[in-house]
Amino acid sequence: MAKSMLEKILRKSENDNSIQVIDIFSKSATMKGNNNTSDMIRITVEFSRGSKIKEKKSIIIKLSREGVQQKMDTQVGLFHIEMLMMSDTLDKMNKLLGSKHRLSGKILYAQNENPVLLVIEDLASLGFRMADHMYGLDLDHSILALRGIARFHAASVALCEKEPKQKEMCSKGIFNDQLPAEMRDVLIKSTKNLADEVVNWLEVKKYSEKIAKLADHIHQIGLNATKLCEDEFNVINHGDCHANNLLFKYDNNGKPIDQIFVDFQICVYASPLDLLYFFNSSLSFDIIENKSDILLNEYLDTLSTTMKQLNCKTQPPTMKDLKDILKRRASYGMIIFFTILPFMLCCRIEANDMDELLSTGINSGFKSESYKKLMIKRLPLYDEWDLLDL
């Protein structure tokens, strides 16, 4: 990015027209296996103000990629959704919650074409970083995340009561009729590849055929499971609520003390689908097996308290309501378990990047022992819940 452009962005974001850019240092802000649909560049800008004292500031440039991912950006409007979310919806939600509970970083600049890009504050410079989630998040991280999700949802309810049009801005989500054929093909290929892997696992090989049969219908299953139902409790969902998109701040003993969200390209107004996404993509084996109710209680407590503080007219769901919603939409959680969780569990060296996945549908995470262990427990449940039958 040119010095003149960065100077313009900094002058506006810092509200100081005396700023002059001296130097720029840039490097990639993502690692292989993070599966971003955008290129992320971390830029450190050295600049002076009127007093000539040198300062440094780190910012993130998010650029639309070429190829299938760019097609997805265009057809689904991923960048457009994130621009609207960060410049309008999230800005208002953050103001409702106050500075103590920020949901997102600040957007500094947005450009709609040639190229499409966003400039966002660098949350790493504020002490936030990605958790180590090779084996799933532990209880401390998970509780912080559930409280964050609850505040996100509560603030969205308060905002949508004031501005009903906000619901329309988030009407697509990850499953929608505009999804490019290439992305549907990835879902199909990935599910078939999973079936091919499961046939080698003696404990659950009998489910392989059922998974293979689901493959051609997987997009429709997702559409049905995420469809808006007006008489349910509905919120604006983050929509891509996995461990890579939740950053944490830590105390001196390494304990997580704060959490913030990134990546708002597939936010969607619907039931609290983030819970199914997060539970099925980001938790450790022990948490999934033994601590789910603790997390749901944390979510409901924070949701109810925050909605009351924000004077929401809408009533929060009861635990029974919430569990009924999650049960009705359990097939969405299954799809996340099939397609997103393997990315979270595979090691960085073996991780596919997004281009590899789009071309082959092969996910090296299927080979993870952690994933196999979880699947052996989970597949009989899916079968019991009739999710593996068309």
UniProtKB/TrEMBL annotation:
Domain CHK kinase-like: 118-309
One Pfam family per UniProt: EcKL
SMART domains: CHK
Database matches in InterPro entries: CHK_kinase-like, EcKL, Kinase-like_dom_sf
PANTHER family the record matches: CHK KINASE-LIKE DOMAIN-CONTAINING PROTEIN-RELATED (PTHR11012:SF56), PROTEIN KINASE-LIKE DOMAIN-CONTAINING (PTHR11012)
Protein name: CHK kinase-like domain-containing protein
Gene (UniProt): 105627114
